[in-house]
Amino acid sequence: MRLDDPAHKVLTASPKSGGCGAAGRGIEFERIAWAPTGDGRYDKDTQTYGNGLVGSKIFGDELKLPDYFIPSNWSWLQKRDRIFQVTPAIFTYKGRELMVTASKECRVYLMDPKNPGATIIRLRSTARP
Prior knowledge:
Strand order of the largest sheet: 1-2-5-6
Helix content: under 10%
Oligomer: single chain
Largest sheet: 4 strands, antiparallel
């Protein structure tokens, strides 16, 4: 919703697969709001972003998805309902903006929101889901 618009126009953008669930959004310094997507397919050509994270930002009067992160094993995650279900936390550490989130796969992803595909570190819990 554009709060600076007296009509409070509601803007939407869709990952086309999986949808954005009840988890909240993390907003980084470039004003991109990151949200996890649910079970679904990934297809870059059709801009379908299931089982990952999507970044949305207002450009003029439109809400667009300028960036995303899909783990390389998205298909395996989809088959086993191991979606990202955690609101991304965005913070600054030693002058660098970082984003951390997790999935039902018991993995924690630490990434740079300016280049989410280049995951900095992916930690796996010793407990199996």
